[in-house]
Design a protein that fits this description.
253 residues
């Protein structure tokens, strides 16, 4: 991947992204169909089927925020500093915020019939809400400066601070007594016919959400690159117009 300006692309798609999008759509559709066919459990009834998408959404949010942090670290390190890493960090954080919000929404839908409340200040829920707030703050911070280098440096530090909440979210059910059930994979027994079907659909959901994330990331990065190119071209055109106006004024004098 190069930062050198090239001819503007016609769009953000291509054969590779088309194939990636098709794989994401197929795996996501299969996950939803198989998830709806899962047998209800005695404890949670049909709501247990949310296991097909709720943990995978959380996983995709972890991946997105992790990639944002790694890209931020690569931007901060002088040897690997490049505009593309800031672009990847921002795009991945945006997608992670969407996945994190969907995780909270599906968790609330699951929690209402299971716990009797839409929301409670449980350790897992609270730390997840904090994670969402931290990366919303990251996105807001990116709008605080017009200087690309200042913006990238501040955002990179913020991403590295915010991502420290990810392991807290993940292990919160082990570290504190919490209303939220334990980690999903640790709670299931693959040898059981019932649990085995839940595990299989949930693992498929992990793959599907990862593919959806990758597809979104590629397109978002390409959109951002096109916007940067258009901004640079607009600035260059404005400078040329000002120079032309100055030449006319000097000729008149």
């Amino acid at each position: 991947m190069s930062d050198r300006p090239t001819s503007p692309p016609a769009g953000t798609g291509g054969p590779g992204t088309t194939l990636l999008g098709a794989a994401a759509l197929a795996s996501l559709t299969t996950t939803v169909v198989l998830g709806l066919r899962l047998p209800p459990t005695r404890e949670q009834g049909p709501y247990a089927r949310l296991i097909a998408i709720h943990p995978p959404l959380a996983w995709a949010a972890y991946v997105a925020f992790g990639v944002s942090a790694v890209a931020s670290a690569l931007w901060l390190w002088r040897r690997t500093r490049a505009q593309r890493w800031d672009r990847v960090a921002a795009a991945s954080a945006e997608i992670g915020v969407v996945f994190c919000a969907l995780t909270l929404i599906t968790g609330s839908i699951w929690g209402r019939p299971t716990w009797g409340v839409w929301w409670t200040w449980d350790a897992r829920l609270t730390s997840t809400a904090l994670l969402l707030a931290l990366f919303l703050g990251y996105l807001a911070l990116r709008r605080g400066s017009y200087d690309p280098e200042v913006r990238a440096r501040r955002a990179a530090v913020a991403a590295l601070v915010a991502v420290a909440d990810v392991p807290i979210v993940h292990f919160s059910v082990d570290w504190w007594r919490t209303l939220h059930q334990g980690r999903s994979l640790a709670q299931l027994t693959p040898q059981s016919d019932l649990d085995g079907s839940y595990v299989a659909v949930m693992l498929l959901g992990f793959c599907a959400m990862t593919l959806v994330y990758a597809w979104l990331l590629v397109h978002r990065c390409r959109v951002e690159a096109m916007e940067e190119r258009l901004e640079a071209e607009g600035l260059g055109l404005a400078l040329e117009e000002r120079r032309a106006e100055a030449s006319v004024v000097r000729a008149g004098v």
